[in-house]
Specification:
This protein is of the alpha+beta class and about 280 residues long.
Length: about 280
């Protein structure tokens, strides 16, 4: 890290954390903010599904890696012990808080409906502080915001046992479903195909995704394909026709209709306006 404190949208994180997709121990504290679609983070070689609008706490030196298909509305806060420990009290908190030091559990905070707007303001203010760290007032703001997050986390944290969360059936099915989509989405875009792969009914799969991801099974496929399409439109020079082929659409017209229905713009319009 260039500094002891920073917040990044996940698309930009690789510029500051080149090993983000490797399972390694890092000497920084990590706080992950998920958006309306939730996100996935890998802890101790296991995929953990973070629910929508939640905050995940990962201590330094814990084996972790970022998922290559983290949703675009995920934000990542990184800070060092040196940044936060302005006093013995601060240092003691970091060294003893279960948020960061209990490796038998995963700790996260689900924001209540009325707290989502507050969470968005916190992310905005963290960015404001990061962009002005040369000034002491912004350093003070950054420290104050991190402290607020940790206090709220300590008060309202959810604990998921490392030994049990993988066995939670809805969580397990949702993770496996997303893994299968990543593998087969070009050829297969029907819920039935994936339900058959998991040896369950479409209704059971939808129940699991609604419980864990907050959306139906069909919407999970749609959102995944749409994210892939947006990334290619933004970050590559492929033609719309080439992108449609790479995503498994039978023709450019079908892809354009899909994109228009789900993004509200034609692919060419989306690319021109530079949406992310």
């Amino acid at each position: 890290m260039a500094t002891d404190f920073g917040i990044y949208r996940v698309q930009k994180l690789h510029e500051h954390l080149p090993d983000m997709f490797d399972s390694v121990r890092r000497n920084v504290y990590t706080i992950i903010f998920s958006g309306p679609n939730g996100t996935v983070h890998h802890i101790d070689e296991r995929a953990f599904q973070l629910p929508p609008y939640s905050v995940l706490f990962v201590g330094q030196d814990r084996i972790a890696k970022f998922d290559e298909d983290m949703t675009e509305d995920t934000y990542v806060l990184l800070f060092s012990s040196r940044f936060f420990s302005r006093s013995e009290r601060d240092l003691h908190f970091l060294q003893h808080s279960p948020l960061f030091n209990d490796y038998s559990q995963v700790y996260y905070m689900a924001l209540p409906e009325e707290g989502v707007a507050y969470g968005k303001v916190m992310v905005y203010l963290l960015y404001q502080a990061k962009n002005g760290l040369d000034e002491q007032v912004n350093k003070d703001l950054a420290h104050n915001l991190v402290e607020q997050i940790l206090i709220m986390g300590s008060m309202t944290v959810n604990q998921v046992s490392m030994g049990s969360y993988k066995e939670d059936q809805d969580n397990f099915l949702s993770i496996k479903y997303k893994e299968l989509i990543a593998k087969y989405f070009v050829e297969e875009k029907t819920v039935k195909f994936y339900a058959d792969q998991l040896n369950i009914t479409e209704r059971r799969l939808t129940k699991a995704t609604e419980q864990v991801l907050g959306m139906g099974a069909k919407e999970v496929i749609t959102n995944y394909v749409l994210r892939k399409a947006k990334r290619q439109l933004i970050y590559t020079k492929k033609s719309v026709k080439e992108i449609s082929v790479s995503l498994g659409f039978s023709g450019e017209q079908n892809f354009s209709a899909f994109f228009m229905k789900n993004a509200g713009l034609r692919p060419s319009e989306f690319r021109k306006q530079g949406y992310s």
